[in-house]
Amino acid sequence: MNKTKIGIGFIGFGTVGQGVWKHLQSQREELEERLGVSISFPKIAVRDLKRERGVSVPAETLTLDPMEVVNHPDVNIVCELMGGTTKAKDYTLAALKLGKVVVSANKALIYEFGREIFDAVKEFGGHYYFEASVAGGIPIIKTLREGLVANRFASIAGIINGTCNYILSRMEAEGKSYEEILQDAKKLGYVEADDRLDLDGWDAFHKAVILAFLAHGKWVSERDALVEGIRNVTLEDMHRARDFGYRIKLLGMIRRNFKTGALSLGVYPALIPLDKTLARVDGVYNAIKLSGDVAGTTILIGRGAGQDATSSAVISDIVDAMIGIRDNAHKFLTPSDIDACYRLGESARMATMDEIRSKFYLRISILDEPGTLVGFYSVLAKHGVSVARVVTYEHQGERRGTITLATYPTSEAIMERVVDELKQLPEILTAPLVLRIYEPTRE
Ligand SMILES: NC(=O)c1ccc[n+]([C@@H]2O[C@H](COP(=O)([O-])OP(=O)(O)OC[C@H]3O[C@@H](n4cnc5c(N)ncnc54)[C@H](OP(=O)(O)O)[C@@H]3O)[C@@H](O)[C@H]2O)c1
Predict the structure, then answer these.
(1) pLDDT single digits (tens) 138-172
(2) Whose CA is nearest to atom 25 of ligand 1?
(3) Of the residues 189, 214, 384, 391, which has the maximum number of CB atoms within 10 A of its CB?
(4) Vertex 338, ends 332 and 340: CA angle to 5°?
(5) Which atom, in ligand 1's list, is nearest to the CA of 12?
């Protein structure tokens, strides 16, 4: 029987590209046998031909021109593993226009140009696979689109940035400051060159947007989301949170109210009850908790980044793409799939700040004098915010105290007004820190 010829090209051959190459080489025979295909690697585009790499490839395979990969007649799967958005978009669209398959791990690209890429898939008949773009080795996209396809998701909560989880976990375990652990994380290469992507929540936001599109059919923009990073979380907050029975994690939250159509998306440091699975996910690990109306709760935990975990996800896409090419029938993100996603989005609208509700944790530095609490409590009372727990701490030898409190559920809009008014009080010494408290559905 004639084997289907599959040519895999790479644009980008760094951490992920080399990992994919390495594991594909070692599994090549088995994959060829299992899938009935014959695999070749015709072209690899890089930026620097002289750069030392961890794997050796035939010199004639390397090129400086990514379009050589796109246009190569033997390449039918283009792995876009270069990162960035401008050039990566051009090469992706060029390959899709030729009807080729593009496999990518590029969450920033999908966030910025997902609509355009999916339009090109519909128009030109190419295919786009992007399992590795969210949560590294965790097969979250396949889980959403295949294993749990029967479900609608009222909530998807995830620890989807391994770098922040690593920093927060080590701060708590070792009692060290954010700055100290951040320097270590940088030395270990865990932090993106543009550290705002990790530390200010943008990388997690891009991933949450991809999940929200797949689950609810809406591309959520920056202005419709709450995005906060971990820079303001202190060791003191971690201790106070623990006193209240919580741990602090950077959480991506996608919530949908199917009665009202309201969809909300946020990335922020949140207090998670100590006994919940998400609170126990440490280090560079990621976790995603899906609350489906048919299957109930499903929690996936795994490595969120790194060469091997990311390669594992890229290779799973390559295998699906090879089957799609072999059978001339791709099952993922077909034009009808894309249309179905957008149709899902027609009944969704972004939730208002009045509709997004949770419990909140507040830390306030306040002048330590008789009567200073009166103003503070009257602001809370004026806005109908009830306090579930409160602890005050004195600072020996200083005229300031710290109040930490947990509220009952209230809205984002109300909490914003409370904080604005608290900031006006002369006895409040610094802007209050506000964190959300995660209220899990049943696990
Ligand atoms: N690393 C992870 O753990 C991880 C996890 C999930 C997703 N991702 C995503 O995977 C993608 C790749 O990440 P990575 O960590 O592998 O990046 P990386 O190590 O920096 O590798 C990037 C590669 O792209 C090449 N490149 C850059 N610009 C190019 C251009 N204009 N023309 C040709 N080649 C170019 C570089 O060439 P040279 O080698 O010659 O410099 C390098 O080989 C990114 O989208 C990233 O967000 C990474």
Answers:
(1) 999 999 999 999 999 999 999 999 999 999 999 99
(2) 12
(3) 214
(4) 110
(5) 24
